[in-house]
Write a structure and sequence with these properties.
The complex is a heterodimer of chains A (about 325) and B (about 375).
Chain A lengths: L17 H6 L16 H12 L3 E5 L3 H5 L12 E3 L5 H14 L6 E7 H7 L1 H9 L5 E6 L36 H7 L4 E5 L4 H13 L4 E6 L3 H4 L6 H10 L6 E4 L3 E4 L8 H6 L9 H24 L11
Parallel strand pairs in A: 1-2, 1-3, 3-4, 4-6, 5-6
Antiparallel strand pairs in A: 5-7, 7-8
Helix pairs in contact in A: 2-8, 4-6
Chain B lengths: L1 E5 H11 L4 E4 L6 H12 L6 E4 L3 H12 L5 E5 L1 H6 L1 H9 L5 E6 L13 H4 L7 E4 L3 H18 L3 E6 L7 E5 L3 H7 L16 E2 L5 H33 L6 E4 L6 E5 L1 H16 L4 E6 L1 E3 L3 H6 L6 E6 L9 H12 L6 E5 L9 H12 L9 E2 L5
Parallel strand pairs in B: 2-3, 2-4, 4-5, 5-7, 6-7, 11-12, 11-14, 14-15, 15-16
Antiparallel strand pairs in B: 1-8, 6-13, 10-12
Chain lengths: ~325, ~375
């Protein structure tokens, strides 16, 4: 495992006082089985603390399904429905229909799926519920590969990334799928990206999503120290560096047209982000520059769209 | 009220009468007219259901898995490739003990492409943990779909009602349509003991290790073992309300027959007409019509076979490498009962080829004259 060059003392100061969140929680998800440094349970905990008890979780195969507990144990404080890997969007639509038909329209249906279930095997069904604007809060915790089966590439794996199916010599040659653009093309009411390193930003977005109806989609980066070959204590640091380096900018898209950056990424920390992770160990200097240029280009697009809000935005038009 | 309706209309009316709450379906021939009719019924407000218009059959079944988990009554319909696409969530529905009801309008599996009838689509799903009924008339469809909800909800096992594409789905027959008030009395709203409930939160179908998994399967098997009694009881209540009932194995002139043909679906009605005609000529032939593939009515079948009758099984399906699926089931059931006679296997009507009365007469000839092959498939109506 890549231990990384930094000592704990050398780490940047946390932007949010974690203790405020730790001790004010309604739910702590005590007893979960996630790996040290995992982002997924941190994200779920903070989301549930915003959504509250009138929530039903629909969850496919993946890390979240396993780490919730093994029968007869479950840490979920709210009803939790396991569904087949490819079935999350449709099953969530069914839960929505059933709750609506039995007088429980106020309950939030939270689809909680990884990048494999979302970007890959469930994409057709996800597009369908987006097109139908089903009243669901769909959250993708994105750890950028099939981590539960042991680090196989997904279409969310970054360019140049190592995985067991994109090994040395055949590193991922394609850029990460742009899920925000895909969801925006469906003109859903709300899309936002989020990070466990920016909890104020995240919880505000969850609260906003809860206020809205229709399909709301949150794309959250979920650091995976075992899969990213990083030190578990660097989980949150990596989440922060991903945002600051512009590899995972924080933004939202309203009604598929209005873009808003919710955090100004400094552009710093790109090299450090890569250095802290063994999965980028085999990238050439040229590939690193390609990845960075791609991130910068995307961030520039977001900035342009952010600045253009208030003007008429044409769907599909390049800024 | 008596109306002349198609098989697919009969299924749709049964869904309306059962006051289904969530429907999800995807178009596929020859099922499509069910999805259309149910859309119309939901659109007009005749049925207060949510129709979830999904992008695939996999999503249709997945939607019902979600919906049924909230405690509501659910329905879908499909055929052939659509049913095959559902294969994965079919196991999930039964494993999660969700009483979903589905119509499968039987259609052969491609390749090569075909929209015409055989039963290979549904028999290929026999191990998925669904009850399976096979109907031969539009009246039986409406009655069976209504009963299916009650049976499924009592056993917590999903139920598939199958009937032949075009031969039944698109054929119009006079059907006695039950009154809504009578159906309401027979089939009260679903009362789910286990459901997604924020007042009483539980986790459903979570990861299970070897220390518990077998017990879940054991309980599912036990439910299927209880099924014959529950099915008989439900049909017993049905006959009280509606004056019609059905057995898992129906005998037509089979008791004293020398040659008995076991059949299902629309082919069984051709056999029935043939038996009538041959009986008029004094030939002692009979029909045993099988209404269920799961649970397979082994004891009921064995009780209706009297050695040394010569037994043939007519299969409108094929499991390549073995033969007809009903034949396998009949052989297993009779062997378990100690039967030592030969079971003759007849494959006919694949991909919608007509099974004619002459085909059936030929089968009875071969059974009576002992010219049917007892150790290999007897192909019926195969082009030379």
């Amino acid at each position: 495992m890549n231990q990384g060059p930094h000592s704990a003392a050398g780490r940047p100061a946390a932007a949010v006082a974690m203790t405020d969140y730790e001790f004010c929680s309604q739910y702590d998800l005590y007893g979960h089985m996630a790996c040290p440094g995992c982002g997924e349970k941190i994200l779920l905990r903070h989301i549930l603390n915003v959504l509250g008890p009138e929530t039903v979780i629909v969850c496919p195969a993946g890390c979240a399904a396993v780490t919730d507990g093994v029968f007869p144990h479950s840490i979920s404080p709210v009803p939790f429905l396991h569904v087949p890997f490819d079935a999350t969007p449709a099953a969530a639509a069914g839960v929505r229909a059933g709750l609506d038909l039995s007088g429980r329209k106020h309950v939030t249906v939270l689809a909680w799926a990884g990048d494999g279930a979302t970007f890959d095997i469930g994409m057709g069904a996800l597009s369908a519920i987006a097109e139908r604007n089903e009243n669901i809060l769909y959250v993708c915790y994105d750890n950028e590969a099939y981590m539960n089966t042991g680090i196989q590439r997904s279409s969310a794996t970054p360019y140049g990334g190592w995985s067991t199916t994109t090994p040395k010599g055949q590193l991922k040659a394609e850029p990460k799928k742009n899920i925000g653009a895909i969801m925006a093309a469906h003109r859903i009411p709300y899309f936002a990206s989020g990070s466990p390193a920016f909890l104020d930003d995240l919880t505000a977005k969850v609260a906003q999503a809860k206020r809205l109806s229709g399909l709301r989609f949150l794309h959250l980066l979920s650091p995976c120290p075992p899969g990213w070959k990083a030190d578990p204590r660097d989980g949150i640091t990596l989440a922060r560096l991903a945002v600051e380096s512009r590899l995972f900018p924080l933004y939202e898209i309203i009604e598929g047209t209005h873009y808003r950056l919710t955090h100004e990424s400094s552009g710093a920390g790109f090299d450090e982000y890569l250095q802290l992770q063994g999965r980028f160990r085999y990238m050439s200097a040229g590939d690193r520059r390609i990845l960075q240029a791609d991130a910068d280009r995307f961030y520039a697009q977001l900035t342009l769209r952010h600045n253009r809000n208030g003007e008429t935005t044409v769907i599909g038009e390049e800024p | 009220m008596r109306q002349v309706i198609s098989g697919n209309e009969a299924a749709s009316l049964a869904v309306k009468l059962a006051r289904v709450q969530v429907i999800s379906a995807y178009p596929i021939t020859p099922q499509t007219t069910i999805a259309e009719k149910l859309s119309e019924i939901c659109g007009s407000g005749e049925l207060a259901a949510r129709f979830v218009r999904v992008e695939s059959e996999h999503s249709a079944m997945s939607t019902l898995i979600g919906a049924a988990s909230t405690g509501v009554r659910t329905f879908t319909a499909t055929s052939a490739q659509g049913l095959a696409l559902m294969h994965e969530p079919l196991f999930w529905a039964s494993g999660a003990r969700l009483p979903i009801v589905m119509v499968d309008v039987n259609r052969a599996m491609a390749a090569p492409w075909t929209i015409w009838c055989d039963q290979t689509d549904s028999v290929a799903q026999r191990d998925t943990g669904w009850l399976q009924f096979y109907c031969w008339s539009n009246q039986e469809i409406i009655d069976t779909v209504i009963c299916a909800f009650k049976i499924a909800e009592k056993l917590l096992v999903p139920c598939m009602v199958c009937y032949d594409g075009f031969f039944i789905s698109h054929t119009y027959e006079p059907v006695e349509i039950p009154e809504q008030k009578d159906v309401d009395e027979f089939l009260p709203p679903r009362n789910a003991e286990y459901k997604l409930d924020t007042e009483n939160p539980h986790t459903f179908s979570g990861g299970t290790l070897p220390n518990y998994f077998m017990e879940f399967r054991y309980k599912l098997q036990r439910a299927f073992e209880r099924a014959p009694e529950v099915i008989a009881r439900v049909y017993g209540e049905y006959v009280q309300c509606f004056d019609r009932t059905y057995d898992s194995v129906e005998s037509y002139a089979a008791d004293d027959a020398d040659a008995v043909l076991v059949a299902s679906g629309s082919a069984a009605s051709t056999v029935w007409h043939t038996v009538k005609a041959l009986r008029d000529q004094g030939r002692k032939v009979g029909l045993l019509r099988i209404r269920q593939l799961r649970p397979f009515p082994a004891a009921e079948l064995a009780a209706k076979i009297h050695p040394p009758q010569r037994i043939g099984v007519l299969d409108r399906n094929l499991s390549p490498g073995t033969g007809g699926v009903f034949t396998q089931e009949v052989r297993a059931a009779l062997h378990r009962d100690g039967h030592t006679g030969r079971i003759h296997e007849f494959i006919a009507g694949l991909g919608g080829r007509d099974i004619t009365m002459n085909n059936i007469i030929d089968i009875y000839d071969r059974l009576e004259q002992k010219t049917a092959n007892a150790s290999a498939i007897n192909w019926v109506g195969l082009n030379p």
